[in-house]
């Protein structure tokens, strides 16, 4: 056992394991944060937070103040918040773009299928119209029978034999 631990050509076993990075879970978290950052509630919370910070550090007893007038620490906190918010918002936008791309592709496929079905039905209707043009209609048959009756009546009156 000690022999195995001292070998330099073998990798060491990790002392602890880190949970694997799940980009889907992180992406969902980023979207939730970005969605919250884009709300009026967040703006109200940030406004109240900054107002309390400034009022505390301007009017609290000197011993209780932790960020005197130019409020350098507040600037640092807001910069840190912005430096994390921007990439989270971009990540959420990229994920939304990916979802939109998939949706557009599905919509395109559905539109192509609908177009093909419409063209098929148009060809079928055209074929039926052509076929109906070759079928004797009721009015056509009535007209032919009427013409034959008139021809028979005329032959009967004239006494000529049918040809």
From TrEMBL:
Keywords: Membrane, Transmembrane, Transmembrane helix. The chain crosses the membrane at residues 42-59, 71-91. It comes from the Bacteria. The keyword Transmembrane applies. This is Putative membrane protein.
